[in-house]
Design brief:
The chain is of the alpha/beta class. It has a single domain, classed as NAD(P)-binding Rossmann-like Domain (Rossmann fold, 3-Layer(aba) Sandwich). It is built from 8 helices and 7 strands. It has helices at about 25-35, 45-60, 75-85, 110-135, 160-180, 200-205, 205-220, 230-240; strands at about 10-15, 40-45, 65, 90-95, 140-145, 185-190, 250-255. It has a 7-stranded parallel beta sheet, with helices on both faces. Helix 1 (about 25-35) links the parallel strand 1 (about 10-15) and strand 2. Helix 1 (about 25-35) crosses helix 8 (about 230-240), helix 3 (about 75-85) packs parallel to helix 4 and helix 4 (about 110-135) runs parallel beside helix 5 (about 160-180). Bound molecules: nicotinamide-adenine-dinucleotide (NAD). The site of nicotinamide-adenine-dinucleotide (NAD) has 30 residues, from helix 1, helix 4 and helix 6. Nicotinamide-adenine-dinucleotide (NAD) binds near residues 45 and 48.
């Protein structure tokens, strides 16, 4: 019987930002486990991490949990050392975390904010990738970076630094895809549009955001709805699995058609 190309059975995946808060990393971690992967989950949030670990345990999935700030090199080293000690190597790395402390127009951004956002959203991904690559060199692997539609087209409304960090992730993805294809290591990015996570839900509590920004967001989503974390799961399983063996260096929108839509286009 031929192997299901979408199966992750026998593969080990490291997912950062996997704490159970109803976000994208949480959904992807559970989804990769459902597809059969062994999971090393990491997050800066101890309670969230514990919760995801309990969910993985309840579903019978093999996993380890490691508290880790991806912006702190010793903590990232410790994460990958823990995966080494667990055994089985690493086949998949999914980089998810981000910080976005608040909207600010470009001329109002402090250097401290710029540095703090790049530290997690860009340097954190690099630090994890730098640990994963040597471990994948002999066996191949799949690296999945969570980017954003904001890394491709401009959002305005004070998203300047966030968008710059996501643009950097796109080039990081393409450079890695080219550098390591010969070693059988594929690197791709998933670009979600606005996704109903606790962060977005919090914004929706603000009447000004709900009345002013939400209709604009929905108008930019030809599917006519926000994404939900589960929308990202199938794409992550695909990119992690052998089903995507020829897919490398792709910036794959999961955005309901947002990036396909001309800003002056009509879709109704
Ligand atoms: N939610 C959206 O609308 C949306 C849209 C486009 C792209 N994205 C991208 O999707 C990814 C996940 O977004 P989300 O909304 O699910 O976020 P989230 O806040 O729900 O999840 C992010 C997780 O990362 C963890 N984290 C934060 N800083 C960390 C650090 N330094 N080290 C380790 N873990 C850390 C958090 O504790 C949290 O569990 C991000 O890269 C984000 O840019 C989200």
């Amino acid at each position: 019987m031929s192997r299901d190309p979408f199966s992750l059975r026998g593969k080990t995946a490291v997912v950062t930002g996997a704490g159970a808060n109803g976000g994208i990393g949480h959904a992807i971690a559970l989804g990769l486990a459902r597809a059969g992967a062994r999971l090393a989950i990491a997050d800066i949030d101890a309670a969230g991490l514990r919760h995801t670990g309990e969910e993985l345990k309840a579903s019978g999935g093999e996993h380890i949990s490691v508290l880790c700030d991806i912006a702190a090199p010793p903590e990232v080293e410790a994460l990958f050392a823990a995966v080494d000690a667990w055994g089985g190597g690493i086949d998949v790395l999914v980089n998810v975390p981000f910080v976005f402390p608040g909207r600010a127009r470009p001329h109002e951004v402090t250097l401290a904010t710029w540095d703090a956002m790049f530290a997690v959203n860009v340097t954190g991904y690099f630090l994890c990738i730098r640990q994963a690559l040597p471990r994948m060199l002999e066996r191949g692997g799949s690296i999945i970076n969570i980017g954003s539609n904001a890394g491709v087209s401009a959002l305005g409304r004070g998203a300047f630094v966030y968008s710059c960090t996501k643009g950097a992730i796109n080039m990081m993805t393409r450079e890695l895809a080219v550098e390591y294809a010969g070693a059988g290591i594929r690197t791709n990015a998933i670009l979600p549009a606005q996704t109903m996570t606790p962060g977005l839900e919090a914004h929706l509590q603000n009447p000004e955001f709900r009345a002013g920004v939400l209709p604009r967001i929905i108008a930019g989503l030809p599917l006519g709805r926000l994404m939900v974390p589960e929308d990202l799961v199938g794409t992550a399983v695909f990119l992690a699995s052998d089903a995507s063996a020829g897919v490398n260096g792709v910036l794959l929108p999961v955005d309901g058609g947002n990036l396909a839509l001309n800003a002056s286009g009509s879709y109704r």
